[in-house]
From TrEMBL, chain A:
Gene3D superfamilies registered for this protein in UniProt: ABC transporter involved in vitamin B12 uptake, BtuC
Subcellular location: Cell membrane
Protein name: ABC transporter permease
Matches recorded under CDD domains: TM_ABC_iron-siderophores_like (cd06550)
Organism this protein belongs to: Bosea minatitlanensis
UniProt KW keywords: Cell membrane, Membrane, Transmembrane, Transmembrane helix, Transport
Coiled-coil annotated spans: none
UniProt key word Transport: yes
Membrane topology term: Multi-pass membrane protein
Highest taxon of the lineage: Bacteria
Length: 318, 248
């Protein structure tokens, strides 16, 4: 398969572009020429930002794919399943109750909230009688809406709206060295999930299919949800929510090469990274020297692509 | 040998399978027949460990299905296989090797996959996605997966669903070959008593969650027995060496 190296090169090219542009007051030529100022900008800001983009894109896209297999629904992803909003509520809770808590503890609390929210989503799904494919994301969006309303209420009372805003809108402009490294953990968790790729694919075929193959369905689901919850919590805490990413990327890859996770997961990761890089670059050049947050670019682009997929998939599902 | 002793299944207060006890010997084809809602699928899924029994015990080769992992001993194909995933036929069939290979396909596994595809006449469709197939083609892909799993016991729930006459006959001949040439023990739920009488070695007839008759086809294919099973008058005609049930 020649496609993989080509995709990887494409991501590298985008990453190089991302390194060279921005409102740092340095032209690409000056950056490349070296010098202390250039090196500092590169190491302290541009490089971390580019890494953050790649890590977030890859891990959120794969998280979306896992959610879709587990929920057995094309439109499930952390931001349409209450996962993101729950992680935000978790961050808020830990900030209020234990302001001095170490980062790792904050992450664990946020992950626990994210996991609980997603389980609530799946439990709700089991009680919804009509399981039209589109009802599933609707349930998730409503649940997410309720949770974020609770968060807003609490944040308003305790004057934390600004922090909440940072968790709910994805923005890479504040990424600096020392402030994004948790995202490597997200990538490591994503890699760990790939070990169970075959089991996730089997789970996507249904509980009975997996059980017949001797796979412990509940364990696979629990494992997948835990990974998704932790990855989401890490991304929400460092970058903020990036809508549609986990939805669009796996769906496009699925249209091209199907849902065998073992085969498609590298493409989902690469394409996820490419998509976030591209949106961020676009946000930086469109109104240069001002920046449009990546979440906004993604929201506009994403909803367009989402609509397209919806119409296409809808026609298919019949 | 499948030993079913005192097995019941309740959903809330409704008893769906009611204190069933029967022993199915090793080898050959056992057909399970009966009216809709008789509990055939429920019984089959309990043997296939997809659903747990409310009471009683099911053992395959002496091992309790509730406590022993058995994906290499027994495989089951359910009646409805609603699928959302886009997998190719070959990928689906390859999953049949999962219990033995855990995802690392050996050359032996590859041979199994090709053989299963060939048995079901799916070579030309191997790279097609499941959502691009007709219902009957999809059904054959599912049977190929179970065949590929290559277990001693194979449970099939109405595998003739969606199949045209020719493919239905091919499927039953294939099931016969699996029993005769590969020595598998097959339990198959069949909708059509005449198909059961033609291909099965034994027929187990269920009604209202109980087994009302069981025995060789000759014992079941009588007006009297069929009336007890289906609660209607059914004439049995002999054509050559075949018996045909004709409802009227
Ligand atoms: N999950 C379930 N919950 C409640 N009732 C069920 C469930 N599954 C099956 N039943 C009921 O059990 C009875 C037997 O079903 P089934 O075993 O599928 O019958 P058959 O396969 O013989 O047509 C039916 O009346 C059906 O409605
Ligand atoms: Mg049935």
């Amino acid at each position: 398969m020649r496609l993989l190296p080509i995709s990887a090169l494409f991501v590298l090219a985008l990453a190089a572009t991302s390194l060279l542009i921005g409102a740092g007051g340095l032209s690409p030529a000056e950056l490349l020429a070296g010098g202390d100022e250039g090196r500092l900008l590169l190491l302290a800001s541009r490089l971390p930002r580019t890494f953050a983009l790649i890590l977030t894109g890859a891990s959120m896209a794969v998280a979306g794919m896992i959610m879709q297999l587990i929920a057995r629904n094309r439109f499930a992803e952390p931001s349409t399943a209450g996962t993101v909003e729950s992680a935000g509520l978790g961050m808020l809770t830990v900030t209020l109750l234990a302001p001095g808590a170490p980062v790792l503890l904050r992450m664990l609390v946020a992950s626990a909230f994210a996991l609980a929210g997603t389980c609530l989503f799946l439990a709700l799904l089991r009680r919804v009688p009509l399981r039209s494919p589109l009802v599933v994301p609707l349930v998730g969006l409503i649940l997410g809406g309720v949770i974020s309303a609770i968060s807003s209420f609490i944040a308003y009372r305790y004057d934390l709206l600004q922090s909440l805003g940072a968790w709910t809108t994805g923005d890479f402009s504040a990424v600096l060295r020392g402030r994004y490294e948790m995202l490597w953990l997200a990538l490591a968790l994503t890699g760990l999930a790939c070990v169970a790729a075959n089991r996730f694919t089997a789970a996507g075929m249904g509980r009975d299919f997996a059980t017949n193959l001797g796979i412990d369905y509940r364990r696979v689901v629990a494992f997948g949800l835990s990974i998704v919850a932790m990855v989401t919590a890490l991304v929400v805490a460092t970058i903020g929510m990036i809508p549609f990413l986990g939805l669009i990327v796996p769906n496009i890859v699925s249209l091209i090469m199907g849902d065998n996770m073992r085969r498609s997961v590298p493409y989902v990761a690469l394409f996820g990274a490419a998509f976030v890089l591209a949106c961020d670059i676009l946000g930086r050049v469109l109104r240069y020297p001002f920046e449009i947050p990546v979440g906004t670019v993604m929201g506009v682009l994403g909803s367009g692509i989402f609509l397209f997929l919806l119409l296409r998939r809808g026609a298919r599902a019949g | 040998m499948i030993e079913i002793s005192g097995v019941s299944k309740r959903y809330d207060e409704t008893v769906v399978v009611d204190d069933v006890s029967i022993t199915l010997p090793r080898a050959g084809i056992t057909a399970v027949v009966g009216p809709n809602g008789a509990g055939k699928s429920t019984l089959l899924t309990m043997i296939g460990r997809l659903v747990s029994a409310s009471a009683g015990r099911i053992a395959v080769d002496g091992l309790d299905v509730a406590t022993t992992p058995g994906a290499r001993r027994l495989s089951i194909l359910r009646q409805d296989n609603h699928i959302v995933s886009r997998l190719t036929v070959r990928d689906l069939v390859a999953f049949g090797r999962y219990p033995s290979s855990k995802g690392r396909l050996t050359r032996d596994d590859a041979a199994h996959i090709e053989r299963a595809l060939a048995y079901l006449g799916l070579e030309a469709l191997a790279e097609r996605f499941l959502d691009e197939l007709s219902g009957g083609q999809r059904q054959r892909a599912h049977v190929a997966t179970v065949l590929c799993q290559d277990t001693d016991y194979v449970l099939l729930d109405e595998p003739l669903n969606n199949l045209d006459m020719k493919h239905a006959r091919d499927m039953m001949r294939l099931v016969r070959r699996m029993a005769d040439e590969l020595g598998k023990t097959i339990v198959i739920v069949l909708h059509d008593i005449n198909v059961a009488a033609t291909y099965a070695d034994r027929i187990v007839a269920m009604r209202d969650g109980r087994i009302v008759r069981s025995g060789p086809p000759e014992a079941i294919m009588t007006s009297q027995a069929l009336a007890a099973i289906y609660d209607m008058e059914i004439e049995v005609a002999r054509i050559g060496d075949r018996m045909l049930a004709i409802p009227y």
